[in-house]
Write a structure and sequence with these properties.
mainly alpha; RNA-binding; elongated; 19 helices; single chain; three-stranded antiparallel beta sheet
RNA sequence: GUCCCCAUCGUCUAGCCUGGUCCAGGACGACGGCCUUUCACGCCGUUAACAGGGGUUCAAAUCCCCUUGGGGACGCCA
């Protein structure tokens, strides 16, 4: 039998790391079983939900390649459906009208807290047989004894005393449905068979199961994924830095690196660290989801990103690079040129931001190349200048399409004649070509720059 | 406060269900080395954990209990 999973974010902000991970796990669970993955936007709270957030979430999921099937379900468009279901519960005696005000309920909770008990609504309208009325809410008649149990896909057998739960509100005073009601109705109507969500929802699960039972519906399988923590082991939050998935995009991470990292955070398959998307789909199972919270480690993400940068096609990276280049005016940014630079940087850059910085000296026209003062002072001393001057005709004589090996051989021969070590010219030449003391291989760099540009740079350096 | 959950190297984790093959394996990081025209890559090595205490057992990281520590939930938010 085919399964259906879903991701159900609330559009009150961007897609954050934790949400992205549950979306990924839900997506993987569906794909692993050849099932369906759906998206539902939980925007019943009109105050806090925005169109921008909805778009941002969908965009982030697309970036991670976690697209859902069909079009998203918007809860805000389904209030009539929820209300008709609430009516059914009212009719079959599983729900009742309550006229207590928020203040009164708060007072009850305070009282319970003061007595050292769990703060709950005390059920005082439960048997009053009230009908509809302005400002009145509909509450669920939670069984007062017994246990609600379920088998969590991640945590295993789980049970909650019904007495721990109070009579939750299903319909607010303004007529809008609440989260638990809407979720149950939608999951049922969307045919959701497996619900994978954050740990913070565990307490909702028994309430929702009670609703399924009141409706007489099949209960889906539930799984609760532990949270992601910051380096201080507290819940991951803004003060830990980037939370939004798209911020990682902007920091130069590749989507496959983030996906691999997230997959491995809380899930494992033996000792394997690197997973292609196909492997993830094939190997994923909820049985190997961990059940303790994990700390987000940017260093490991960086390592994975470096790995995927090395593996990526240069053309793809070249296409992504321009948006990371600061002050691009007057820079040489044509795709073919960028694609020739990228292979020299793939072994060196951990992010596209770094790659863009490293690429900069390639992109600047000769007259705008920035020479590091200390590098010039240290490396372009008179003897070094003399050598570069003598080297110039050698490079001028080289063919336009000389490969880097030929250039290196020519340089080596020049040095051999003078009984000099390679080191005698390496750093001076590097500074002349790049303005810096650190760069990709000299001759590869010269080949990418081209003969004309390389010569011009050496000449400019000699004139400094 | 009440209820629930969790607990292996600094971090992610394997192992735990089905006790012995674990003086606990892998990876990231850190540190050291090799390679080397710089920076990187790569390669090699070092570092470092079963939270504590009781049981059960011939044998416990693995099972049970307690303690401690951490987290979550208790909304007319989702």
């Amino acid at each position: 039998m085919s399964i259906t999973t879903r991701f159900a974010p609330s559009p009150t902000g961007y897609l954050h790391i934790g949400g992205a991970r549950t979306a990924l796990f839900s997506w993987l669970l569906a794909k692993n079983k050849g099932g369906h993955f759906l998206l539902r936007v939980e925007d019943t709270d009109r105050e806090r939900s925005t169109k921008e957030a909805t778009d941002a979430i969908i965009q982030a999921m697309a970036w991670l390649d976690l697209a859902a099937e069909g079009t998203a379900v918007f809860q805000s468009e389904r209030f009539d459906i929820y209300n008709s279901h609430i009516d059914k519960l009212l009719e079959n005696g599983h729900a009742y009208w309550c006229e207590c005000t928020p203040e009164q309920v708060e007072a009850m909770r305070e009282k319970a807290r003061a007595e050292g008990k769990k703060p709950k609504y005390d059920g005082r309208c439960r048997e009053r047989g009230l009908g509809p009325g302005a400002g009145r809410v509909v509450r669920f008649k939670t069984p007062q004894d017994g246990v609600t149990a379920f088998h969590d896909m991640v945590k295993g057998p789980t049970a909650v005393q019904n007495a721990e739960m109070d009579d939750m509100i299903l319909r607010r005073g303004d007529g809008s449905p609440t989260y638990n009601l809407a979720v149950v109705v939608d999951d049922h109507e969307m045919g959701v068979t497996h619900v994978l969500r954050g740990d913070d929802h565990v307490a909702n699960t028994p309430r929702q199961i009670l609703l399924y039972q009141a409706f007489g519906w099949d209960v889906p399988d539930f799984g609760h994924v532990p949270m992601i923590l910051g380096p201080d082991k507290a819940k991951l939050s803004k003060r830990h830095g980037a939370l939004s998935v798209m911020e990682y995009k902007n920091m130069g991470y590749l989507p496959e690196a983030l996906v691999n990292y997230l997959a491995r955070l809380g899930w494992s398959h033996g000792d394997q660290e690197i997973f292609s998307r196909a492997e993830l789909v094939e190997l994923f199972s909820t049985g190997h989801l961990g059940n303790s919270p994990s700390v987000f480690d940017i260093k490991k993400l960086e390592w994975l990103n470096a790995h995927y940068i090395k593996e990526a096609a240069p053309e793809r990276l070249a296409a992504l690079l321009p948006e990371f280049i600061t002050e691009p005016e007057g820079l040489k940014l044509d795709p073919a040129y960028l694609a020739s630079i990228v292979p020299l940087l793939q072994q060196r850059a951990k992010t596209l931001v770094e790659m863009a910085e490293m690429a900069r000296f390639f992109l600047l026209p000769t007259d705008r190349l920035v020479y590091d003062e200390k590098a010039v002072a240290d490396q372009l001393k008179p003897e070094a200048r003399q050598l570069l001057t003598e080297l110039l005709p050698l490079y001028e004589a080289a063919g336009d399409d000389s490969d880097h090996k030929a250039l290196e051989a020519a340089t080596q021969a020049f040095l051999d004649e003078r009984d000099l070590k390679f080191k005698a010219v390496a750093q001076p030449l590097r500074v002349a070509l790049t303005g810096k003391t650190a760069s990709p291989g000299l001759f590869e760099t010269m080949c990418v720059l081209g003969k004309g540009e390389s010569l011009a740079r050496i000449k400019r350096a000699l004139a400094l």
